[in-house]
Amino acid sequence: MADRYLEVVEPVDNVATALRDVTAGETVTVAVGDEERTIEISEDVGFGHKIAIEDITDGETITKYGKSIGNATEAIPAGSFVHVHNVESNYGRGDLAEESDVEAISE
Amino acid sequence: MSEFLGYERDDGSIGIRNHTVIISTAPYANDTVERTADIVDDAIPITHPLGRCQTKPDVFQTYRTLLGYATHPNTYGAVVVAHAGEIVDGDELAEDIAATGRPSASINIHEEKGVMNALDSAVDAAQEMVQDASAQRRVPADMSKLTFGINCATSDTTSGLCQHKATAGAVWRLIDNHGGRGCFAETPEFFGGENELSERAVDDEVRQEILDRVEHWDNRLQATGYDVRGAQPTPDNMDGGLTTIEEKSLGALVKSGDGPIQDIIDYGEKIPDKSGMYIMDTPGHGAESVTGIGAGGAHFMVISTGQGHTLSNAVMPTIKITGNPHSAERVPEQTDVDVSEALVGDESIDWATDELWEELTDVINGKLTLSETMGESQFAIHRIGPST
């Protein structure tokens, strides 16, 4: 039976939100839509944080609520902790903006 | 329940509180305002660092925000304190307040020949207003008169899964069942969800305006030359599991439900009378967005928090709800409604919505929120451009 404390919002999502502390070495079952998926947890993940529920490749879109919440900055195997160390945003990225746009303010 | 007990105003609005506010027009009147409010019990000081040496867009925004508080449905009367001649003009503000039928007074420190005389005059005026306000009685009023403000505070991953759903349920109950209004804000917290949000607009013009305003914020943030992460999401958001602004936004938008959006209005602009849901274009900075929605005339606000928060407003009562079982322990003295049983226990979102609705209808009729019992409040007008 699926673990009710591992919430996948939409079936297309590739991450689950932990509503309990999850420990490396656990085998968990998550509900993904009408289906269930079994995952080996490879890292400790605290309350409120996210777990990859499938293998995610470097650069791939991280999907939650059925929408992009950013892109992976490295390969993230299923069962790994997903957070700021391996995901980047696509908004408010002044660091990636054309230099001519930022010259006046960034100097 | 379709009626509540409120305070009638000459301009047709109905308040759920009966406040006297003491308003500063510039930083150099702030101390006099604070001292007046120290002396006169129940008077609310409104101070800020603006109102002088500002460019016109900021002058209009500062004036609009201060007038919004002075003529708020929950405001009985207002004492305006100016330092000298200012671009945010104290006499003009007092006249605009009086035009709504509210008692108002204009006090100028230079004209009074000093702070001691100004303080004496401000205390005199505030005393009379506070006493007269205390003699006014609540009368039955229709709930269609009410405007429901909503805001996030220290969001985490529980926000979009639980407490925001209860908040959405309550605000749409006021709109759909009672003919009231709702207002949410925080435009940079639409990033990643703007397309779906814009599709909820009542017409193409509003739909495009939502998209344009989101793009405008993204451009402004990019123009800084830095990655916005750290400012959005904030360190406490990230502690709570939120990884990017997109993830924060998609959760944040849950609190607005999925019904139609009537319009997107400017910071501090009066929320229209027509029943329905409105967006106010504000930053995600909670003190600034809450101050803006208060200026727009929301009677009360539900602050739907993830990690717990002190965010409050003195004129518009703030009801704080959380679904994170750890947060009610973090800021216990200000958590009005704990619905974590709907996230990790056996209760439903409908139960959480009913819990919130019951509390907010009590607050509408006069029950103090926890932040009101502590006198907790912040006031921060959003600034657009440079000081000059």
Automatic annotation (TrEMBL), chain A:
TM spans (from-to): none
Keyword Lyase: yes
Residues of the SAF domain: 13-88
GO molecular-function terms, A-Z: hydrolase activity; lyase activity
Keyword Lyase on entry: yes
Family annotation (Gene3D superfamilies): 2.30.130.110
Domain of life, source organism: Archaea
A Pfam family hit: SAF
Keyword terms, alphabetized: Hydrolase, Lyase
Cross-referenced PANTHER family: ALTRONATE DEHYDRATASE, ALTRONATE/GALACTARATE DEHYDRATASE
Name recorded for this polypeptide: UxaA family hydrolase
Organism: Halohasta litorea
Automatic annotation (TrEMBL), chain B:
GO molecular function: hydrolase activity; lyase activity
Domain D-galactarate/Altronate dehydratase C-terminal stretches: 143-386
Keywords: Hydrolase, Lyase
Domain D-galactarate/Altronate dehydratase second: 6-133
Transmembrane regions: none
UniProt xrefs under InterPro entries: GD_AH_C (IPR048332), GD_AH_second (IPR007392), UxaA_altronate/galactarate_dh (IPR052172)
Entry superkingdom: Archaea
Protein family: Belongs to the UxaA family.
Protein name per UniProt: UxaA family hydrolase
